[in-house]
């Protein structure tokens, strides 16, 4: 048995233990606000950031942490150089707290669906490319067959989406497991490889060349995703491997709308998912006045996957969308 599992049993005894301890925790003053706080501390790794996320003051957050440690009779976190880190007791408490909050959310969703007569709601997060090629067609299928289902979609980077998934803000995601998260927390099914390209405005000087090389690119402004994201790292690797200087003038944004606006209004270059680039280039409206730059190199990104949390069952409406996305990915897969 792992240390965290052993501690888990001490804080919350299972079927072999007594229910009296859980009743005692409630009688001792354990509240939903405490559960939200420990989850926020685990997610943000700073008491001040957790307080901001819950819209309370830092002194109030510190008091809540002290209350939790008094109720549980255990130290839940310890100070580290850049904030706080949960102890084994803190990790066990956060894991159970997240499960309880998720179950309460599912109760609310199920009761709301029963009251309204709808088919429930789904929360899906996706990186850009599969949002276009996989999520949109699957959502259209679901909406046509089950018009009562409400689908909520968030397009973001894998780093953001994976943490939202763990925090139960997404049912499942189409993304990649970040390097700094434990892959054992997730169920992962690889479904595709993301290809990217470079976009420029129509009439850009580089379009006069039949094919652009890396050496042609550093002299222009660039619009990148935030530092550390996969697409940005891949572009930087290509420059470094070719011995070409990195671009010196850079705008960082995760917004595809802002990226497109900057590219359309300047000579800037931006790397984006090819599916998104094709979609925007085919729009034909002013916001879509871009061209895909023909290059002598390929931009392939790490494969993306359907990801859910281990031990957390998908609601029926989410499972329906999950299965449709998986089915479509297999249809599009090369033989």
UniProtKB/TrEMBL annotation:
<keyword id="KW-0804">Transcription</keyword>
<keyword id="KW-0805">Transcription regulation</keyword>
<dbReference type="InterPro" id="IPR050950">
    <property type="entry name" value="HTH-type_LysR_regulators"/>
</dbReference>
<comment type="similarity">
    <text>Belongs to the LysR transcriptional regulatory family.</text>
</comment>
<dbReference type="InterPro" id="IPR000847">
    <property type="entry name" value="LysR_HTH_N"/>
</dbReference>
<feature type="domain" description="HTH lysR-type">
    <location>
        <begin position="30"/>
        <end position="87"/>
    </location>
</feature>
<dbReference type="Pfam" id="PF03466">
    <property type="entry name" value="LysR_substrate"/>
</dbReference>
<dbReference type="InterPro" id="IPR005119">
    <property type="entry name" value="LysR_subst-bd"/>
</dbReference>
<keyword id="KW-0238">DNA-binding</keyword>
<protein>
    <submittedName>
        <fullName>LysR family transcriptional regulator</fullName>
    </submittedName>
</protein>
<dbReference type="InterPro" id="IPR036388">
    <property type="entry name" value="WH-like_DNA-bd_sf"/>
</dbReference>
<dbReference type="InterPro" id="IPR036390">
    <property type="entry name" value="WH_DNA-bd_sf"/>
</dbReference>
<dbReference type="Pfam" id="PF00126">
    <property type="entry name" value="HTH_1"/>
</dbReference>
């Amino acid at each position: 048995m792992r240390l965290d599992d052993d501690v888990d049993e001490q804080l919350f005894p299972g079927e072999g233990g007594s229910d009296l301890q859980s009743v005692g925790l409630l009688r001792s003053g354990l509240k939903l606000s405490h559960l939200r706080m420990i989850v926020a501390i685990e997610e943000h790794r700073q008491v001040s950031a957790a307080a901001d996320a819950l819209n309370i003051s830092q002194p109030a957050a510190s008091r809540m942490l002290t209350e939790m440690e008094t109720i549980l009779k255990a130290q839940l976190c310890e100070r580290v150089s850049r904030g706080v880190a949960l102890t084994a007791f803190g990790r066990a408490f956060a894991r159970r707290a997240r499960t309880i909050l998720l179950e309460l959310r599912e109760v609310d969703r199920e009761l709301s669906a029963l009251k309204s007569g709808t088919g429930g709601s789904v929360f899906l997060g996706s990186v850009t490319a599969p949002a276009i090629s996989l999520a949109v067609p699957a959502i259209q299928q679901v909406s046509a067959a089950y018009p009562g289902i409400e689908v909520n979609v968030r397009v973001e980077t894998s780093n953001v989406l994976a943490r939202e998934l763990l925090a139960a803000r997404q049912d499942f995601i189409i993304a990649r497991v970040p390097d700094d998260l434990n892959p054992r927390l997730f169920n992962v099914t690889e479904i595709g490889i993301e290809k990217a390209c470079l976009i420029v405005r129509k009439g850009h000087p580089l379009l006069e060349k039949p094919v652009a090389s890396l050496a042609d690119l550093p002299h222009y402004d660039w619009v990148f995703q935030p530092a550390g994201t996969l697409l940005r790292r891949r572009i930087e690797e290509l420059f470094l491997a070719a011995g070409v200087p990195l671009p010196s003038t850079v705008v960082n944004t995760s917004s595809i709308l802002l990226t497109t606006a900057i590219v359309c209004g300047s000579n800037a270059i931006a790397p984006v998912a090819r599916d998104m680039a094709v979609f925007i280039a085919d729009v034909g409206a002013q916001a879509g006045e871009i061209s895909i730059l023909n290059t002598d190199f390929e931009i392939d990104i790490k494969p993306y996957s359907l990801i859910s949390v281990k031990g957390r069952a998908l609601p029926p409406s989410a499972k329906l969308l999950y299965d449709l996305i998986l089915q479509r990915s297999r249809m599009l897969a090369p033989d």
